Amino acid sequence: LSFISKSSKPKLCLLFISNPVTIFGYPLSIFFIVVNEFCERFSYYGMRAVLVLYFKYFLRWDEDFATTIYHTFVALCYLTPILGAIVADSWLGKFKTIVYLSIVYAVGQVVMAVSAIQDITDANKDGTPDNMTLHVALSMLGLFLIALGTGGIKPCVAAFGGDQFEDHQEKQRSTFFSIFYLSINAGSLISTLITPILRAQTCGIHIQQECYPLAFGVPAALMVVALIVFIVGSPMYNRNPPQGNIIVKVCKCIGFAVKNRFRHRSSQYPKREHWMDWAEEKYNKLLIAQVKMALKVLFLYIPLPMFWALFDQQGSRWTFQATTMNGNFATSLSSHQTVNPILILILVPVMDTLIYPLISKCFNFTPLRRITVGMFLAALAFVAAALLQIQIDETLPDFPSSTESQVKFINMVNRDLQIEADNETISLKGFGANEDYLTFHNQFTLVLESGQQNTVNLANGTRNTIAIIQGSKLGKAGKILLVLNGFGSVLNVTVRDKVFNFTSNMSEYLSVSHGKAEFMIKDNRESCVYTQELGFGSSYTLIIPSTFTFGERCSENIKAVMDMKPNSVHMAWQIIQYFLMTTGEVVFSVTGLEFSYSQAPSNMKSVLQAGWLLTVAVGNIIVLIVAEAATLEDQWAEYILFASLLVLVCITFAIMAYFYTYTDPTKIEAQFDKMEPEEKEKRKNFDMPRKGSAESHKEDRGSSDSSSDDECTKQTKI
Questions:
Q1: Residue 579 in 3-state DSSP?
Q2: Locations of Basic and acidic residues compositional bias (predicted)?
Q3: Last residue of some domain: 530, 564, 598?
Q4: What is the pLDDT averaged over residues 697-716?
């Protein structure tokens, strides 16, 4: 250890070299990084797997608004990596950036889990939050922190893992990146399988409901584990100090070229071959040539966001589509979302070793042609989704428009009745109901058998059930299970751990999971068990008539009226569109990254990585624009619209690719390396030392102060 100062020379210099601990030739530190990445990806994809369902069923947002917020969040997750890369390379370094932003990330996940606890604002203990504004505010805060954290560390973790290897460990470094990518897919696969199942569990202090706190809490715990594991490995890490961000340097170079060209826009200045050549006064030709090559590839990125606009709707529109289909939603959703990582792991080697070689025997299947095919497959996936949606729509009930309301009448009297609603005669059997809902505008006049007239006001866009009790009295309920009590006394009904009491009136609709549901009906002395098979998406009204009596055959007195039929199109049909989309992703995304790296200069890899992530963000913004601008009532029409836009973009990209000329960045850089000494001499007069700078002081001092300057340099290095 040498203590150097200008006044004294070092007497003793000891150099300690600590060889990093290795296992099978790999630094031990990378195992902490791989585990960290697995836990982080589990946390992110697990939370995202149920996010739109949380928006719709907990926060009570409609599907369009839930889709908007979902894609805004995803876009933010892919915008923040640029910020994280600049912070890491320019100021904090990769290690500190990962630690600080992981703390932000973990806090965001915890806030999301807390926001999903309905009991924190459920003062009346009815299972519904009383202060939804607080839950929304916590959710938005949590999502913002998550987007900042996951995006900020995204460009740092893989690069930090690469920093752990020495120059002679090129083979081990390459294997590390393969393991690193495997950990990403493993975390995604397991989390998307487990989290929907966790959501399907019931929890709650007062009322047992779908357990969103558990679905968000487990990913939050995994993020805390990821942070702890990463910090534990800190003594073993090789930490490179910040050396400046190439993205900032490229932007400055482009900015200088634009400003210099603008200053010399007069015709008296000779034109240059390329507009970037106007940066030659300040930057060397090698950097300018590298920027040109990077811009050439980035220009091809312009049409690519449209692919991601379709791809990321797997987590929004396609998830909502699954809720209108038949099947165990918890297991089906998890199995559907795990199709993507499973197919990726299968298709990547199949494409590389079998499909691409076979196609190449017929014609030259270049990377740009592969990307074009990938976009076309994604468009086909949305055509498949549209065709499936048409089949689903045929089985769904015809809900009222925003200017209409629908009504179903139920006869609670043990004899047939005839009533009139706006001069339309309706026959009702004893303890029966009309089969289809009737449509009215705002209000209608109901005439009972006794001649009594009742003006019924209805909210537009709603479905209502009107019960006729004792021939003249009315009971009304808005809008998945409704219970009518005509018994004449207070009854206690329990179904799937949900308990409610009501008198001679209607209950609120209850959301009950599918399958065979048992209803325990009690009064002060006796009980009765009624069983009803509930299909996915079905809605029933259960009638407890005035003739109801407790006893062995009590359940035979209870009548069930079907309000909505169960979903009949099975979720398995979604496998087709998932397969097409994942195949398109493999052909598009993997090839796109491979092409970008092969065409990028050696020091511009991060620039293209930032550009690639930016296309994902812009793609999600496109979803927001199209969803808001295109006022399409039918979901299948929106799917066709997105497919058509992607086909149009696909044709545009094919034309751009036709005129693209492949380059070899290594050869170009080698040519400019030979010219570098001449370039330094050429710019010597342009980059004159400023007055008061280190160089001017050195010239003033002359050679007599050279030894002192050497000491300063040594001290800086140490």
A1: helix
A2: 673-703
A3: 564
A4: 38
